[in-house]
Design brief:
The complex is a heterotrimer. Chain A is mainly alpha-helical. Chain A contains eight helices and no strands. Helices cover about 65% and strands about 0% of the residues of chain B. Classes of the chains: A mainly alpha, B mainly alpha, C alpha+beta. At the A-B interface, α2 and α7 of A face α7 and α8 of B.
Chain lengths: ~240, ~550, ~325
């Protein structure tokens, strides 16, 4: 009971786990661990980027044609949202480092909301695509694609649309796998931000102990960075 | 703080009482002290138990496969069952046994001790790795109960996307096991960087630590690619995405590239920890520092780096471009150099040594002979022209069993015997240990050497039925597998009986010089009662 | 004791193609290098073991940290040997990979679980590849026509030292020039399911004249032979035996047994039933997926376009003779 209160009022007295020689050593070790984990994340996505490259090389026209049905406007909004959230995340880490509890909480909350906004936009995009049948593999609807494409680009010759409609499922397969895995990472990132947010509200962090915020920040920046690559690759083909 | 100096003369027979403390077994009791433990030693033991159970399971599958091959056509099971058996044998042995065997069990127990640390850097992550392993195993067993898989452990598409079996649960199992392996890797790298005892510089690290470090690098950098490959395979089966499906414009050979980008480094994830164990054994039982310590240490890192660049040598007959095959062939030959350096250095260490032929050293010698055969036969397979003939025949089967089993499993057994007194505090029966070794060694060579011959003669692998001309080889191999099984049974009895019947081992029964021999057997809760300080090389004795 | 030989060695099957000689020479070059290194490493280990075994009152070990010259030697000498192996291997591999321009082209189609070969004149054979002696032959591989979905197979002729995968979406090739008359084994070496180990075939090397005559003969049934007898041969040749039981000693279970099948009333997968007559058999050979017998998977490949009418008739006549 009393230790809990103590921790709130004297956060500077953070004790690292017994097997670390100092709090600093723990923070350093945790950062190395996080960087290694980020390396594995990059490699996880690298597989998908390779698949993207392979199929873009095999079917350049289909990728060029099929991407036109992605909503560039929403994609751009989401890019802005994530870049902004990276900024607020960096500010949150800075605030935690300086021991500004209120600012830490504020910036973390904004970052979390940006994540939520991103997912909201993804929901709008996904539900439209699922509705008209622009989905991977066996659930893909050729007619849906044709209808959607002619609505947007009525000038296109029918033979051209048909050719695209036959192969477009591969593009949407890649699209859903890449953005889906990324979306999952945004959700995990939001979970992690929520966790440090609660701890920050309780006053767990201090200039001597703020590395959890920093680690979540690193993770969040990676999630943003991946989107920065996904956006042009998927929405700005050609 | 007392100076714990490894250069002080060791006392092989001496028995020191647990220096004022109680062992980690006595520090806590009850099932909760195991299930929720954060102690690397307990987690290591839980891994060890799980790995050995999986080894028994994979071994039973192996014996059934060999029994089926005793005669051509049907001996005891149908072709469909046989195909499941060899798949399960491969998947269980690779993902549940060999990959976690040395790093996750012996590594978990010994690494912090050799570093003079109290634990690994992230004990909770360590426990999470273990439970991910358990969950992965549960998925694998679920897959076995619900129809199992008949794809081979390589899950090649399009076959794996078409076959009507429990591929998804097995794939998920391997995916989860992959994350278990990644987290162990991250934990070990950080531990080696952050928690070395004062004075323990990188060039004073025991070679086992170096090997675990190289292994961890590969685990961290290769496993995610397997993860994404398996996710794609699941997407392929669930959504029919078409990425690997030629009927939908996809490319099945892309799967092979992805798969081997992980699975070739995985081969080294399996063997490099074995190299580490052998270095420890040879140093201790020759009573000498390892000849060319730096070369042995750095060659592990060299192997780790090159291992990422050789995956295409599994695909010389797949229609990949001739130029690509040439490049992959050349890079594959390069792996031979650091591997040869290790073998030469081990043998050179024996020169003018004082060689004690205890059971662990026998396993080290068996490793040296058997692994040399395994490694050298790899040359036939890295040479493009001969690989075309030998690819996907029993020659390959024999080659990787000489490396994976004769290499990794013998090193694992050597390590088990070597560290058994440290882990349990008890000494196994040396005579029984030696006899088990003899039986295992003979059984192993009987089982697998003939496979080189029948493979080179053209016997393809993964065959349920075979032509009569291969009959004698197959029967001989099957009889060998029974002897091998007997050897394992004896070994298991030898080690397990030591727990109840063994004599107290003492802190340093072998006269080892590395830090784990400078604490009591079994060690106390936080490993060392006084913080160790290091002032010399890992194998110095003067 | 053991050297490359045309009749095969303890390790290698007989050599029956032009490339086999070179591949075997490389094989034995590596083999003797391996033997040398194994004896060097394993032998020294054994020798040191005996010589420096720990004894009561024996000499103390001499710590030797390293010896740069020695270490360089055992890094550089193997490197040189490896480069030789690599270069020699690549030279032979290029020879294996690039077919001569004038090679006769034969298409090979793989499906679960048989091999079909299509000759330049459009004639086909199943389970048997016939080639003329002394002429380069290029095999163009494809996995196709599999009702259960095309998977990867691999064509392996040990006596020729050649192997290449048959892919579903891309042609792959291999070539050889046979140097011996006779029959040689073909294996499938890429795992492809239940019938993988029975996906065998033979390559028959013939005199060029005989080959030409045989190819012509594919256009009509052999003369002076009862049709059922011809059908019996075709039953084996077209690998029907892999899946269908035709004799007591054939344990095939993938497809329905044909013993006593003719005239029987059979339940179908869709719940209806059918009397097995000539027309049902004909349809089941040409379009097997049309009426599948209950309890079996529709895995049999269609033979429409592969078999000639006289071959179908001969097979039916043979099936009619299969009594309980």
């Amino acid at each position: 009971m009393s230790t809990h209160v103590m921790a709130q009022h004297h956060p500077a007295e953070y004790q690292p786990p017994h097997h670390f020689p100092s709090a600093r050593a723990e923070a350093e070790a945790s950062k190395v661990g996080m960087w290694l984990f980020l390396a594995t994340e990059v490699l996880l996505f690298a597989g998908l980027f390779c698949a993207y490259a392979a199929y873009k090389t095999l079917y350049p026209e289909i990728f060029k044609g099929a991407h036109k049905l992605l909503d560039l406007k929403w994609g751009a909004v989401n890019t802005m949202v994530l870049i902004f959230s990276s900024l607020t995340m960096a500010l949150a880490v800075r605030a935690a480092q300086l021991g500004q509890r209120l600012n830490t909480v504020k910036f973390l909350a904004i970052t979390w909301l940006c994540g939520a906004a991103f997912m909201g936009v993804k929901y709008i995009e996904y539900s439209h695509k699922i509705h008209v049948g622009l989905v991977p593999g066996q659930y893909y609807d050729m007619l849906g694609f044709t209808r959607e494409f002619l609505e947007k680009f009525p000038q296109t010759p029918m033979s051209e649309v048909e050719r695209l409609a036959r192969g477009a499922h591969l593009f949407y397969g890649v699209y859903f796998l890449m953005t889906g895995l990324h979306g999952l990472h945004v959700l995990i990132g939001m979970g992690a931000i929520g966790w440090v947010l609660v701890r920050a509200m309780r006053g767990a962090f201090s200039p001597k102990f703020y590395f959890p915020v920093e680690l979540v920040g690193l993770y969040w920046h990676l999630v943003d960075l991946i989107w920065i690559y996904l956006f042009p690759l998927l929405y700005l083909v050609g | 703080m007392t100076q714990l100096d490894p250069s002080s003369p060791a006392n092989p027979e001496g028995h020191t009482p647990p220096k004022g403390g109680v062992s980690f077994y006595q520090a806590a009791r009850g099932w909760k002290s195991w299930v929720f433990t954060l102690d690397h030693k307990r987690i290591g033991i839980m891994y060890l138990a799980s790995v050995l159970v999986a080894f028994l399971l994979g071994g039973i599958f192996a014996l059934l496969v060999r029994l089926e091959l005793l005669t051509p056509g049907k001996t005891i099971m149908s072709a469909e069952t046989y195909n499941r058996m060899f798949t399960l044998h491969g998947a269980v042995m690779v993902f549940l046994v060999i990959i976690p065997s040395i790093p996750a069990s012996l590594g978990n127990f010994i690494l912090p001790l050799q570093l003079g640390a109290k634990d690994v850097a992230f004990p909770r992550l360590n426990l999470l790795s273990y439970y991910l392993y358990v969950i992965g195993a549960v998925f694998a067993i679920y897959s076995m109960i619900t129809g199992a898989v008949d794809t081979g452990w390589t899950f090649y598409t399009p076959y794996s996307a078409l076959t009507p079996n429990s591929v998804i649960s097995m794939t998920l199992a391997v995916f989860i096991l992959g994350f278990s392996s990644i987290f162990t890797g991250i934990n070990f790298i950080v531990t080696i960087h952050a928690l070395r005892a004062p004075g323990l510089t990188f060039y004073r690290l025991p070679l086992f630590v170096w090997a675990l470090y190289a292994t961890a690098l590969m685990q961290v950098l290769a496993t995610p690619v397997l993860g994404i490959t398996l996710l794609l395979l699941i997407a392929e089966r669930v959504l029919k995405v078409g990425i690997f499906d030629p009927a939908m414009g996809g490319d099945p050979v892309l799967f092979q590239h992805f798969f081997w980008f992980y699975s070739h480094p995985a081969v080294y994830i399996m063997i490099v920890p074995g190299f580490g164990v052998i270095s420890e054994l040879i140093a201790t039982f020759c009573k000498k520092p390892i000849f060319g310590y730096r070369a042995v240490a750095l060659s592990s890192i060299g192997i780790a780096i090159i291992s990422f660049l050789v995956w295409g040598h599994h695909m010389f007959t797949s229609g990949q471009s001739v130029v690509a095959s040439m490049i992959f062939s050349f890079l594959t030959f390069l792996v031979a150099i650091p591997t040869a350096i290790k073998a030469f250095n081990w043998v050179a260490t024996m020169y003018k040594g004082s060689i004690w032929l205890a059971t662990p050293m026998l396993y080290a010698l068996a490793f040296l002979w058997v692994f040399t055969i395994g490694g050298l036969t790899g040359l036939f397979l890295s040479t493009t022209a001969t690989d075309v003939h030998l690819h996907d025949t029993y020659f390959v089967v024999a080659h990787f069993h000489y490396v994976m089993m004769g290499g990794t499993i013998f090193a694992f057994f050597g390590g088990l015997h070597y560290w058994w007194p440290k882990i349990t505090g008890r000494m196994y029966n040396e005579t029984l240990g030696k006899w088990s070794w003899v039986v295992t060694f003979i059984g192993f060579n009987m089982t697998f050497f003939v496979q080189f011959i029948m493979g080179a003669k053209g016997m393809p692998r993964r065959y349920y039925n075979y032509l009569p001309e291969f009959g004698p080889y197959h029967s001989f191999s099957t009889v060998g597998s029974w002897i091998l099984g007997l050897g394992f049974f004896l070994t298991a009895y030898c080690l397990l009986s030591a727990i109840w019947k063994g004599k107290k081992a003492g802190d340093n029964p072998w006269g080892g010089t590395t830090l784990e021999w400078h604490t009591s057997s079994p060690p106390p809760l936080e490993n060392f009662l006084t913080e160790p300080r290091v002032s010399g090389g890992p194998y110095d004795r003067t | 004791m053991t050297m490359p030989s045309a009749d095969g060695t303890i390790f290698l099957p007989p050599q029956a193609s032009t490339v086999a000689v070179e591949v075997d020479t490389i094989f034995y070059f590596i083999y003797y290098l391996c033997l040398l290194f194994f004896l060097l490493l394993g032998g020294s280990a054994l020798y040191f073991l005996l010589k420096y075994r720990r004894r009561e009152g024996g000499p103390e070990p001499v710590p030797i940290s390293h010896n740069t010259a020695l270490e360089l030697a055992w890094s550089i000498i193997p490197l040189i040997l490896l480069v030789i192996m690599f270069a020699w291997g690549v030279k032979a591999f290029l020879n294996l990979s690039v077919a001569p321009r004038d090679a006769m082209e034969i298409h090979a189609y793989a499906r679960r679980w048989l091999w079909e070969f299509e000759y330049p004149d459009g004639n086909k054979s199943i389970g048997e590849l016939r080639v003329p002696l002394g002429r380069p032959v290029k095999i163009i591989l494809l996995s196709q026509g599999d009702p259960g979905g095309n998977v990867i197979h691999s064509l392996f002729i040990p006596a020729f030292r050649v192997k290449a995968d048959a892919l579903p979406n891309r042609y792959n090739t291999l070539w050889f020039q046979a140097t011996r008359l006779g029959e040689f084994q073909i294996f499938c070496t890429e795992y492809c399911g239940a019938g993988h180990s029975d996906m065998l075939a033979k390559v028959v090397v013939m005199e060029p004249d005989g080959f030409k005559k045989w190819l012509d003969g594919l256009n009509r049934p052999p003369e002076g032979m009862p049709l059922a007898k011809v059908g019996e041969e075709l039953f084996t040749k077209f690998a029907c035996v892999t899946c269908h039981k035709n004799r007591a000693d054939n344990a095939a279970v993938i497809g329905p047994s044909l013993i006593g099948a003719f005239g029987r009333t059979e339940g179908l997968a869709d719940g209806s039933s059918v009397v097995i007559d000539e027309n049902y058999l004909r349809e089941s050979i040409l379009q097997p997926a049309a009426k599948v017998v209950k309890g079996y998977q529709p895995v049999m490949p269609p033979f429409q376009g592969t078999l000639k009418d006289w071959q179908v008739t001969a097979l039916i006549e043979y099936i009619k003779t299969l009594k309980q």
